[in-house]
Every structure is written in C-alpha cells, then in structure tokens.
Amino acid sequence: MKKKMTAAFTAFAVLGGMGAGVVAGANLQEIKAFLNPSIKFKLNGQPVQLKNSSGAVVAPITYNNTTYLPVRAVSDLLGVAVKFDPAANTIFLGEQLEGVSIAAGFDSSYHTKDPDKTVYLDKDYKDVHFDNGSGTRGSSFMLYPKNKYQKLYIQVAAIDGDIKDFTIQDSDTDTVLKKQTITPEQGLVTIEADIAGVSTIYVTGQVEDGAAMFVPLTTSYYK
C-alpha cells in the first residue's frame, strides 16, 4: 500500500481540496488553472473516478504542465486515511504518529467510569465498556472514525468466560474487518484493524453466560 501511495503522489503534484479551512488558513497565491475532466484514471487496471466526500465526481486541475489531484479523492481510491488539522494547517496521510483515544463521544449501555468496574488486573483504566450482564448475549457498541484514520487498535479482555466472534465491522458496507474468539487466558488483547475509508464501525462479540467483556477506552485508539 505504501508503494502505491508513493507512486500516485509522486506522479502528480497534489492539491489539498480539503474544504474552506484550508483556504482560510493557507498562504495563497493566485494562479490561472484549468479543470481537466478529459483525464481518465485506472486503479490496478480498472477504470475509476475521482469523487469528493459527498460522492460527486471531481476533475483534476492542470496548471503549468502539471496535473493536480484532490487529496481526499486519491486517498479514498488507494485506501489511505486523510485528515486535515486546521490549527497546524497540515494534511495527514496514512497512519498517524499519535493515537487518538476512542473514549471521546463513546456511548453504550455498558459504558462506565465507576471505579468498581474499571479495574482489570490491578490497573484502573478509568473509562471502559464493561458488559457484565446475565445470560449468553451479544455485547456491542458503535465507533465513528469518520474516514480520518488508517488503523484501529482496540483492547479487550474476556473475564470468566469466552467472547466468541469478537467482530470489528464496517457498518456502512457490512464488511468484516477483523473477527476472532477471545479467552480469559489471553489477558488483555490488542486487536488491530485497517479502517482506512471507514466512517462508522460496529463492534460486537458473543459473551458466554457468567462472563464479561472489558474494553478500556483510554488505551484503545485510532491512528
């Protein structure tokens, strides 16, 4: 994937096209350029179209014998996450250096900050999804990366029984990104999933009767 991304972004000078924030924060220089819808694109030999975040087809720009492509459209085609930081006036491509906790905006019926429920193996994680309900059941929650990140690193522990078919799924396309069974003997497991181009994630697992699912939110993160 890195080779594909490098080739694409080296072959063309890339224009941000990330929205009004870029324009407002940039040191702009006026130029005369042309939209060039005659240019066609193929990805791995198959015809593709460049589209913006709303799904509308966008054309490249030609200026001074150089073709400029919108970053988001190209990154979506290549499966590379893109994020614009208006404060730093910087576009981030791919996996970020610093993780972003999934705790912000998290909501589930088993979301808790109760100190009696946030401790696992003598460590207090402060903010967790802790499903200690009764009966064999599905335990689930939603995440909203909004296409901004390349990877999800989510931690989960099975307590007093197995979690079967722990699944990370693209909610919009029903694509399974990762699935596995987690046992108490494994301890706190870190599961990595590629979430480039994913807006909404559905996380679920089948918890055995008498067992609990423990997901620390502060140490589970996007990158």
TrEMBL record:
Whether Signal counts among this entry's keywords is: yes
Q: Which species does the entry assign this protein to?
A: Paenibacillus tianjinensis
- The residues the entry assigns to the signal sequence are 1-20
SUPFAM superfamilies (UniProt xref): Copper amine oxidase, domain N
Annotated keywords = Signal
Q: What is this protein called?
A: Copper amine oxidase-like N-terminal domain-containing protein
Give a Pfam family name.
Cu_amine_oxidN1
Q: Copper amine oxidase-like N-terminal domain: which residues?
A: 57-95
